[in-house]
Specification:
The protein has 109 residues and is mainly α. It is built from four helices and two strands; from the N terminus they run H-E-E-H-H-H. It has a two-stranded antiparallel sheet with strand order 1-2.
Length: 109
């Protein structure tokens, strides 16, 4: 299984104590409960079952997407870090206490 599918599938499948994959029912029940409570606070004319399940699905989708972002963030940051423009390095150097790379001092006038 690839990294992307494994990261996204952690929403649906979790590991038990023995290491076997199990349906992540605690996650589903928690999300469904929180969406139902959120819907209960709306006025009665704005409540609907379809809106509740739409929110449930979008929450699961966004959590799967965040798992993907968290899985690939170090690699993306490593790729992007090498392409930082020089003016950004000079701006960020005082903030991070890192010496800027190849900063050319300006001559005094």
């Amino acid at each position: 299984m690839g990294r992307a599918s494994d990261a996204a599938s952690r929403i649906f499948v979790s590991r038990d104590d023995s290491g076997r994959g199990r349906l992540n029912t605690s996650y589903f029940l928690g999300v469904l409960t929180s969406v139902a409570i959120h819907t209960a606070y709306r006025p009665y004319w704005a409540r609907s079952t379809s809106a509740t399940f739409n929110n449930f699905g979008s929450t699961i989708g966004s959590d799967a997407g965040l798992n993907l972002v968290n899985e690939f963030r170090p690699g993306i940051l490593q790729m992007v870090k090498g392409y930082t423009p020089k003016f950004v390095s000079r701006i960020g150097a005082p903030i991070t206490n890192d010496p800027p790379s190849a900063v050319v001092p300006t001559p005094a006038r």
